[in-house]
Structure of 4-hydroxy-tetrahydrodipicolinate reductase:
Amino acid sequence: MTDEQEKTPAELVRVGVFGARGRMGIEVCKAVDAADDLELAASIDQGDNRSAVSGAHVVVDFTTPDVVMDNLQWCIEQGISAVVGTTGFTEQRLAQVRGWLADKPEVGVVIAPNFGIGAVLMMQFAARAARHFESVEIIEQHHPRKLDAPSGTATHTARQIAQARAEAGLGPSPDATKDEVPGARGADIDGVRVHAVRATGLVAHQEVLFGGTGETLTIRHDSYDRVSFMPGVLLAVRAVRNRPGLTVGLDALLD
Ligand SMILES: NC(=O)C1=CN([C@@H]2O[C@H](COP(=O)(O)OP(=O)(O)OC[C@H]3O[C@@H](n4cnc5c(N)ncnc54)[C@H](OP(=O)(O)O)[C@@H]3O)[C@@H](O)[C@H]2O)C=CC1
Ligand SMILES: O=C(O)C1=N[C@H](C(=O)O)C[C@H](O)C1
């Protein structure tokens, strides 16, 4: 059997990439190219005409928070499923996406704050630990070219921890600070302190530090290379057309 007989073009998932010349977009294009069951249909970056992806089955978006909503609305209108790694998704934005999808019930969208499998597990472990500790703080560390702070991963982790703490009847983490240089105690995300570090040499790292009587628990994840996100991205690309509507996070796909 020849290669062509083994995989006819009709069986390939055609993938378009938005943000294709960015740090993540470059890796996504390489990963799609290297996958036997996927075909890179179009690579779009700032200034390109996005109608080049009209024939794609799935679009992957790693752009910026200020353009991602417009991209996503356009994809949904075209009936193209989307896998989104771009940050900036508030509850309000997610509700807007659900509204667009209501008119296109066959379209699937996966939005994940972090496609690293280890990072997804780190968030799950943190949510599980949250109810058992009086104190919690998050320290995220990223490369200095990152536009947003705190990271989407840290924001998502903080919200999950806050929800678990509320369900367990825990109040705020104890903190006697009275005199503070603004910013010294980090950002407050749903009552959880989040500290954002930016330094050359870093890629994407996060620690969740829990404190209880006489002990601490640190849950840490490190992405040393952007290839770490690719198994999760490809998992979502392969799954998204079978998941109509909005899926937030990779958890359901991993299960
Ligand atoms: N969920 C996850 O696992 C991960 C998420 N991210 C997130 O993904 C996003 C991108 O990160 P990163 O790749 O590092 O950023 P980059 O800045 O390297 O890449 C973004 C790219 O998008 C391009 N772009 C801007 N506007 C448009 C547009 N309208 N259409 C198409 N392309 C456009 C930019 O072009 P130009 O530079 O010319 O503006 C740039 O090439 C960020 O929000 C980041 O936080 C990152 C890593 C993992
Ligand atoms: O900009 C990045 O690099 C990353 N962005 C995502 C985030 O904000 O959480 C995911 C990962 O941390 C890398």
